Each structure stands twice: as structure tokens, then as C-alpha cells.
Give the backbone structure.
Amino acid sequence: MSDYLVKGMAEEFIRFTGVNSRQTIEEARKRHNLSRLATAALGRALTATIILASDLKNSGDLLTLRIFGDGPLGGIVCSAGNDGMVRGYLLNPEVELPLNDASKLDVGRGVGKGHLYVTKDLGLKEPYTGTVQLVSGEIAEDVAYYLYYSEQRPNVFNLGVLINPDGSVARAGGYLIEILPGAPEEIISTLEKNLGKQQSLTYQLQQGKQIEEIIQEVVNPYKIEIYVKKPVGFLCNCSREKLLPHLIGLYSEITDEEEIEAVCHFCREKYTFLGKEIKEYKEKNT
Ligand SMILES: [Zn+2]
């Protein structure tokens, strides 16, 4: 099944967004040649970015999630609009680490200590950026903390990436459940009780459950109503025209017939330019 996002409500106080993102993460894995650890880390970050960006109001708005920790994976950068299309990369895609004490991929150690930044470019003069310290580097916990402290949105945030023995992505997804202001105590305690009984999201995805079924189990006995369902995927908006301006620094070092290869950070797409294209661009634009 193709990847998709669902949004909806349960009662009047529970708002949710869920994403099935297996193909999106598999596309990222292939493009960036990600290790297992890097697939889990970037996969969680990409899924989180789709969820956060789905709340943007206008079609040109852009949300960028940056996770800068001191761990061996290096920085992670992902961006998406509200159309469900996401792109992203991390600095050291080849890094592997031993499994953690729970026999899981050690994303927390891979990311390390540092900060998470969420930038929203809403087409105004200055983009807005919110920052929090990383709680664990496991990403879901860090994004939950960001939403709570930076945007005052009490929430449950969960992300899961399950990897096959050959390194490909078996299942991936995530969800955000928000408790809206004025919610009766009873709703909060019901959700807390349900969450206490739940297995990890990765385990539930492995059981073949769809993301909306998993959300339903968190909010039982309240019934979920889905208002939006739409496709999501990995898509980069790079182009030759956008990359060319970044190459004018090479101007003095190249000959007309020399071929320069430029690679997009976000999607690893390769573009080839002739020296004279770069020179002509510089002459026209400086
Ligand atoms: Zn690209």
C-alpha cells in the first residue's frame, strides 16, 4: 500500500495526525545509502516532519526540522510543506553502532546531546524558529518535548521504523495525538491508561496494524473520525537552476569546457554543469 497521512478528531478534545511512511523512508534509504542506524534516525525525523508540516496553513509554507547533536550520525535536516512531500538528509549516513540495552538500534547515542530546531517559513519577512534541548536523541521524545514547551501543545508523539534483515524498510510510521485545552481529566487519564498497556509502535507496526488502528487503540473507547486522508512521499524540489547559483565560488578555478558535478544534499540527485555555464551565470548576476 502507498504511504498516506490521516488527520482527525475523537470526541471534541482529541486531535490526531498519523502517517504510514514505509515507502518514503525506503526511498530515502536508497537515495542516501543509509546504514540501519541512519535509516532509523532519518526515517523517524522524516516521519515527524511530515506530521508537523501537515499543520501548516498555506500551500507555500515550509517547515524545516533540524536535529543537531554531538553523536556520530551528525546533524539531521528535513523539510516539508503541507502537501505531504518531504525531503531530508543526515551528515554521516554510513554510521552503525552496537544495539542498545533493549536490543534496539541506538538512535539516541547516534544523535547524541544537542538541540532540536523547528523553523516555519510562512512567507513572512522572517521565518519563525523554535528550539529545545534534546531529551534523549530518540527523536519522538524530543519532538514531543518541543511541541509541549515551545508551542504549548500537550501531546503524545510516537515514531517507529522497522528494518528487514537486508537493511530495507519493513514498516514505518508515526502519530501525534493532542489533547486540546479544556479536556476533561477523564479523557487524559483514559489515554494514559491505554498508553500504559500499549506495546512499542515498532512492535505494533510489525503486527501489521495500520496507523489509524493504533491511534484508535490509544483513544479507546472514544471513536476516531478521519477528516483528511492524503498520500505522502519523498520528493525533493531541487533543480539545475536552483543549484547553479551555489557554484559561482568556483568561477576563478575552472575552464569553459570543464565539467562540474554538483549533488543535492537533500536527495543525492547529481547535476552536471559546464564551466562556461557557471561563468556566464556569474557575469549576468553579479
Ligand atoms: Zn534534491
